[in-house]
Amino acid sequence: MKHLLNSLESSLAQSPVGIAVELPGGLRLGNANADLRLRFRDRMAVVALAMGEIGNVGAAIVEGRVALEGSMRQLMAAAAAMLRSDPARDEQVAWWRRVLLRARSMAAHTRVRDAQHIQYHYDLSDDFYALWLDPRRVYSCAYFRADGMTLAQAQEAKLDHICRKLMLRPGERFLDIGAGWGGLLLWAAEHYGVDATGITLSRNQHAHVQRLIEERGLQGRVRMQLLDYRVLQVPEPFDKIASVGMFEHVGHAQMGHYFATVHRLLRPGGLLMNHGITAGGLDNSAGLGAGMGDFIERYIFPGGELMHVSRALQEMARAGLEMVDTENLRPHYARTLWAWSDGLEARLDEARRILVDQHGQEQGEKALRAYRLYLAGCALAFEHGWIALHQILAARPTGEVAAGALAGAQSDYPFNRAYMYEDRAAAHAAAP
């Protein structure tokens, strides 16, 4: 134990922010006058801190075995300094463990289990999410196109960025897989004149978007369905498809089927925008290290699985989709998450009241502690490159070499980026 404490003291001394640590027996380490204070009631949590297992320390905080005083930004700066290794490192996973992980992924991503996972997270409380999301409740990476943008402005910029990449045109049939609270679905309909369909597994989100459709008089041109992407059947394929913040929930074992389903739902020549979180390491089959992956699986996103962008591209190609453009928005997501984290920290009393009222004292307090750590911890992970965010634009080739803007294009994609920077007013002139 003495060696462990010496190691812990050494780590604390290297932290860029002062930390005061109180152990279960009353022994105190670190800077006694520090603003960041951790009071341990559990010896195993002390061991986790000394070993750099910051995800396990986070779990102890959620469970009330470690009391925290201080800001999330201070805590994350200290956490990064306590790490013993890169959480995105590629581990040599034995073949038998890969088989077990794939079996686990298959079992975790049935239609019933996926619905349970989505409802666990997204149906926590609409009022809670509204405290720290932008007014449109866009729960995905924003696009800070210009300096000085607010979160709300950056989210609108992201919505428009996606619509431009998809080259949406009035009258086109547009599908949003995992449409959330309807931000992209309604933006595409109102600004680009598309006939829009959204699907979700969240009952709360479905009800919210249905209300917005009625309030804005968009019935007949916009619809939201409560169903799984695997069972969606349509009389004719869509011209354009977006999937934003959804494929992280699909699971490795189902990824081939997911992209094959997208291929089925997309007309030949049509475009797909797949916007999602990707792993920083090439083979993160077991998730982020240092206990971070286990924390997110347990408290935030049960069933969530990440893969490196190269593997996502392989699965797309196997399904017959051609990647035509890819953009990494990793630092944009770090800034988005810090905006969410700061927004939640500024309204902790309101957040606590909402969660306690809906889930009871114990569960409400635990959920609040989990989200505080989750938002700030993910901001840290994106900053350090342990995870990333890729927008992958893909086409379903027509097979007709003469079709398209250029010979061999075989799709709506012009194979240049000029269309993304043209005056938006011209593109919207015909929108109703």
Automatic annotation (TrEMBL):
Source organism (scientific name): Alicycliphilus denitrificans
GO biological process, one term: methylation
Protein family: Belongs to the CFA/CMAS family.
Any one GO MF annotation of this record: methyltransferase activity
Active-site annotation: 378
The protein's name in its UniProt record: Methyltransferase domain-containing protein
Pfam family, one: CMAS
Organism phylogeny: Bacteria, Pseudomonadati, Pseudomonadota, Betaproteobacteria, Burkholderiales
Keyword Coiled coil recorded: no
InterPro entries in UniProt: CFA/CMAS, CMAS, SAM-dependent_MTases_sf
Keyword Oxidoreductase: no
Gene3D superfamilies linked to this entry: Vaccinia Virus protein VP39
Alphabetical UniProt keywords: Lipid metabolism, Methyltransferase, S-adenosyl-L-methionine, Transferase
